[in-house]
Write a structure and sequence with these properties.
Elements lengths: L4 E6 L3 H11 L5 E7 L2 H11 L3 E5 L7 H9 L7 E6 L4 H10 L3 E4 L4 H13 L6 H16 L15 H11 L4 H8 L3 H14 L5 H11 L7
Parallel strand pairs: 1-2, 1-3, 3-4, 4-5
Helix pairs in contact: 2-3, 3-4, 4-6, 6-10, 7-9, 7-10, 8-9
Length: 224
């Protein structure tokens, strides 16, 4: 039996933090190790409380959730994964959060059981949360802010094998390792090896960063 996932709740509304705490503490799979009312406090508490996952609101005083995510993702002393709490009206913020190092996001109207599942998935580093919604938001943001997909090639993309490029496209489509294995009729371990090499070659923190890379490089076309 594995230890409960250690969760830090960061939101400027006390009622929201209390709601998350009550929900998470009904599960034997999660434990709330702390609360933060602003991004700066969340960064400090990540260093002292060592959470596995941070539920991060975007709009907070002192330091917003995006800046806090950048600090957490870039701190070698912290091993927490950030799960952004957002709404459909914050598309730009979602994309920025993924670029900053967030491992995924959940919508504020997510059912309780889906929230618990999301935390477990992010803590395990297996897959991006609500992937098809995420890729839709990323695609729309790229389309709206650039008018076209960038044709630039990020460092490492030229070093990918044909199969690694194919796997990257599947990751960007929101497919899990198991789904990718079924698609290519290969073993799960083979897919994990490909994903591991993608992370290394593209200097990506996790699968969320691979999705961003696939869109920004033009390997995946918004709406395609």
């Amino acid at each position: 039996m594995r230890d409960p996932v250690r969760v830090l709740v960061a939101d400027d509304e006390a009622l929201v933090r209390a709601g998350f705490r009550v929900l998470l503490e009904t599960s034997s799979d999660c434990t709330v190790v702390g609360e933060a009312a602003d991004g700066a406090a969340a960064v400090r508490q990540c260093r002292t409380l060592r959470p596995d996952v941070v539920l991060m609101d975007i709009r907070m005083p002192v330091m917003d959730g995006l800046e806090a995510t950048r600090h957490i993702a870039g701190d070698d002393r912290v091993d927490a994964r950030v799960l952004i709490v957002t709404t459909f009206g914050e598309d730009e913020h979602v994309f920025a959060a993924l670029r900053a190092g967030a491992s995924g996001f959940i919508l504020k109207d997510t059912p309780p059981e889906d929230l618990l599942s999301a935390i477990s998935v992010v803590a395990g580093g297996e897959a991006l949360l609500t992937p098809r919604v995420t890729t839709r938001l990323v695609a729309e943001f790229v389309r709206r802010t650039t008018g076209r997909v960038s044709t630039g090639t990020p460092v490492g993309l030229d070093d990918l094998t044909e199969r690694e490029r194919e796997v990257l496209v599947q990751v960007a489509a929101g497919r899990s390792n198991a789904e990718i294995a079924d698609h290519f009729v290969v073993s799960l371990n083979t897919v994990k090896t490909h994903v591991g090499r993608l992370l290394q070659k593209l200097s990506a923190r996790d699968r969320a960063q691979l999705v961003v890379c696939a869109y920004e490089s033009g390997l995946v076309v918004p709406g395609g």
